[in-house]
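Margin note from the TA: students keep mixing up input and output lines. Inputs are the sequences; the output is the structure of the whole complex. Example:
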Amino acid sequence: MLLIPCPWCGPREEAEFHYGGQAHVAYPEDPAALSDEEWARYLFFRDNPKGVFAERWSHSAGCRRWFNALRDTATNRIHGVYRVGEPRPVAS
Amino acid sequence: MRRDDGGRIDRSRVLRFRFDGQEYTGHPGDTLASALLANSVRRVATSVRLGRPRGVFAAGGEEPNAVVQIEEPFPEPMLPATTVELYDGLVASSLAGQGRLAAGPDPARYDAVHAHCDVLVVGAGPAGLAAARAAAATGARVILADDQPEPGGSLLGTRDEVDGVPGADWAAATAAHLEERPEVRVLRRTTVFGYYDDNYLVAVERRTNHLGAAAPAHMARERIWRIRARRVVLATGAHERPIAFAGNDLPGVMLAGAARTYATRYGVLPGRRAVVFAANDGAYAAALDLADAGLDVAAVVDPRPAPGELWAARLRERGVELLSGHVVTAARGDGQVSSVEVSPVSSVSSGGVSSIDADLLLVSGGWNPVVHLYSQSGGTLRHDEAIGTLVPDASTQAVEAAGAARGVFALPGCLADGTGAGARAASASAPARPVDVPRAEEPPEAAPLAYWLVPAADYAGHFVDLQRDVTVADVRRATGAGLRSVEHVKRYTTAGTAHDQGKTSGLLTSAVVAHALGVPVAELGTTTFRAPYQPVSFAALAGRDRGALHDPVRVTALHEWHVANGALFENVGQWKRPWYYPRPGEDMEAAVLRECAAAREGVAAMDASTLGKIDVIGPDAGEFLDRLYTNLMSSLKVGSIRYGVMCRPDGMVFDDGTVIRVADDHFLVTTTTGNAAAVLDWMEEWLQTEWPWLRVHLTSVTEQWATVALVGPGSREVLAGLAPGLAVGVDDFPFMTWREAEVAGVPARVCRISFSGELAFEINVTSWDGLRLWTAIMDTGLVTPYGTGTMHVLRAEKGYPIVGQDTDGTVTPHDLGMSWVVSKKKPDFVGKRSFSRADTMRADRKQLVGLLPEDPDVLLPEGTHLVATGTLPEPPVPMLGHVTSSYRSAALGRTFALALVRGGQGRHGERLYAPVGDALVPVTVTSHVLYDPEGARRDG
Amino acid sequence: MSPRPPGADLPDHPDRLWSAAEPKSSYDVVIVGGGGHGLATAYYLARNHGITNVAVLERGWLAGGNMARNTTIIRSNYLWDESAGIYEHALKLWEGLEEELDYPLLFSQRGVLNLAHSLQDVRDSVRRVEANRLNGVDAEWLDPRQVKEVCPIVEISPDVRYPVMGATFQPRAGIAKHDYVAWGFARAAAALGVEFIENCEVTGLRVSDGRVTGVDTTRGSIAAGRVALCAAGHTSVVAATAGIDLPLQSHPLQALVSELLEPVHPTVVMSNAVHVYVSQAHKGELVMGAGIDAANSYRQRGAFHIIERQMAAALELFPIFARAHVLRTWGGVVDVTPDASPIVGLSPVDGLYLNCGWGTGGFKATPGVGWCFAHTVAHDEPHPLAAPFSLDRFVTGALVDEHGAAAVAH
């Protein structure tokens, strides 16, 4: 059970959150202009690094806000959290 | 046998218990193990593979042998007798490695507690008490958890003094002092068994076990503590190690420290005449204490050439022979130890054996810090050559080990170590306050020898894992088979996998493997330490989340009426929905046919309150919905309603429902019952993460509204009677519009929508008014209540799919024959791009069709598949699709089904076959709209 | 002497398993990952295709990853034809595997019950049973009373929160002893000349002109004509070194065992809705799988609240488990694809082959995938049973969606 620092509510138990996978995967500007390969990449391909990962969480049992976190998938250490729209910080 | 005095037991009270059918007595303060030893019960178990007799080996949770079955007051399998506090009426029996579950349900209650603290100290031995004391002195919030009924740890089993008083008294006073502080909590009988990320630890507190049948029923038997600690001090002590020699599994072979604990804490001598076999000084203290307690200690056998002179002198004072430079080569006896064979180290392999009569052989190969929780925390371990074992190395969380848990074994060191660790741990939360270190006598120490294995020609009787019956010979067979990893050896031999999880055998196994491979132990490492540290009951972990509390039960505002009127219920997600309302003598089929007929020919009503309802409010609400629905919503006029479908980006149908435009900037969206939360989450995700500039707010209002669907050709009349102020005529109140009105005296929003094809109204009132509305409708005497069973038939007759029943995550709106709901005007919406992928454009996709069995009385089971031929070929049989919905229709006067069929929209009129049991049922493919395809009935 | 308790003993292993090898400079085929799939692939490469100059590289100890951590359930009652094809092929191989490998695998065809708890579960279950039968996979639909006959300890009272409304039953399904399976394959492959190199982590794939030429490892570089990935949860990390992105996400999956108990549970029970899967292993311990952690992680342990939920679910179905004890919990890292089906076949790099994305279902496929993947590597084209599981399906949209008919919507 991670202790996740919600940028709006402060540290809360992992069970209060909903996971959203990789952050910064924008919905394409113009999906119709994409090839099938490019569209498949958007639909199905997400980074899966062993190390620092920029990912999305939603504080679904709290403020219900989505935010981003930098977490190391090898250690589960959270390096930082940031709100939607804020730039990705440099991992410490 | 029981000593006349001494120990922390209450001799004034007698507890009666039964073990293997024999009646015995003991005293409060006993464990089952100490009471059995007091009654001179030697054999307490039978070994699992070899059927050998086994006796009590340890005094704590690391016990590998005395794992017993509790029979009464309630059966519980596999408890170490060393951890079972004795109570009156206890009935237990010995086991041969397998426990037994009770046949009946467990009547006990279980619970969980959340706690937060600045400092969690695990273990209330000298180091833990010192740490808690130092941390508490700063004012920090401290939790001290200990698995024993009273604090003190090792102090309870020795005669050491702290601050000039007996150690146990110091422990009791220190704990009492701690408990007076408002910010300190001392948890007894509480085993911290798991250490997870971000300093989250879990413990189990045994609250009523020790009370036996007297346990109060209202009190949770066990409860889980979920502790989030800023810092953790692990003062978990150490386990004594066994030594591998021939016959080291016989009853009467016991860890030296355990024997000392039985004598000191429980006033029990576990035998009459003992030999001590040890390679460290701690066992000398044990030998002396035991001799002073009245045990005849024949000899101390020590492989080291010259233990400290002070120890030698003390032994001489008590007439105990010291055999330095010697080892025990074998314990001998029939069913228990009766003699001990001893040999000089120099001539172990060449004989030179002498024999000593003894019924007790006390061994100590040294001490292993209990590093389990430290390892679980992610901390690394290092092999300490000096003490021949693993000690904590680098931590990855805010934790440190103190005292014996990090290899500091002498009492003054433990007290100083604990004090320092406690002060450091508190310093993150509170200003430092210097605390004096409790004082204790420094024992004389000679260097310990890491001694594991007495060499022999034949290792078949040298046990490394007593509980799994694994010998040195077994380990050597594994290395001989080519295995180099301790993990492989463990799995080959099963060493370390038993109930004790290798607490005494793990490192011994590693040492024996290293010896066999000719490499240093440090090179091998050890197996991973995993939670739980001690076994914990399923029921404790399940806690309260059982039975009615397993998952929330959601009911509508009308629920009590449904119950009172005999509804049977269907679980739909967490909701209880009325399924059908059988009248006396009716089965489901009869009830549903009757309800259907009422809806088609008269008036019927359904509680539709469980449909998800989401308010979408804001200037950009229309644009927001345009992006999510496949059709256009922004063009909807205030006062109107539109049906919509949502897809996932992969183009597959995700949910459907109606959208009401309440005001320019206010839409109300309905969702399927089971998907309400998912749809809201889905909307929030897109809004917050993709289109945050859209000025929209989303609010779940599912539970704010009660919704009644009033259905049937007579529904207009019934509504008119209930809502005299509402113009209900077909021109005044057209299909797919809504009106505000007072219905049954209650303010309502009435929608003219239909999920049945009949004239229908959906009446929405606040939940508070729901029952009043429903009762008024039923009081007309004209309206038949119906449930989901009938709703399913009515909608299927009209070919309306149910998401999740007629779709399965692989179906597009086009596949459902609903291309009309997919906008061609909108440049994009979620899912649109996927409709032009190769697979979604295939003509032979599975598409929704109707099926009419050629025999109109044959009802196809839902889930039946369809094949092209009237005889089945050998498997694999090519399948064309499957039946998603299948009913007996009152309106059609026959059975019918919906199905997803490969290229189905081009197969209307075709004959297919449905394998049902051993028969192939011929069916005709039709349009999925079977009832009133012209839509003539919706206006009544 | 008391008699041994039933099942408390296990058959002996052979005196000779395999020898640890030092890496050579070059092999015809290098298999990355010495788990069940890697070992089975190596065995069938040698046995079926005569390719014996093969090294299996394992970053830890052989079969110490998910192979050592799974709950050993074997079944082939999958919904879609593609899945039924490869899993049924595996099950048929399982049925002759002890003889084939000359190793006691404790393969026990005690059947698997998949419980249904809602009307939609019932529909989905019947659909799956009927599909199985037409695909030649044994399957039956049982009502609650019949469920009780197969597994008397299942709670079928209608008064529980989510009553059992029936179950699918595959009698030929069952369990096996995971270590024995791995060692059986390793021993047989070693006898055919395959080498096993432990403590040898692949740090990079070497690619030249679009063709794989070997691997870099923590024990030096090794040249290879072909490289077969069997790295499960770590596949993304290895593939990324050749610039290959895969639609995989790695998650912790936990499991646990109880102490040894007298036999109470004669079959395997799975429930998706109440999320339980449990069997009683040969020695008597209850083996139970827990849920998957939602967040990506390469930590071989999961969060504790998942275990707590698991226990609550288990006691709903099996009240008699109340006073059993959790002896040990552990976690593995599973690689999950968007459609919950594996990826087996060719990769964008010549001579590099993919076998990944098995999620929670890899163990049961072990011989089947070893057979098909060896064929794929040997012939440089997918085995027919593996062909539907190409990477390409994510572009065309022809997914093999084994999430099952999800949703409980109306």
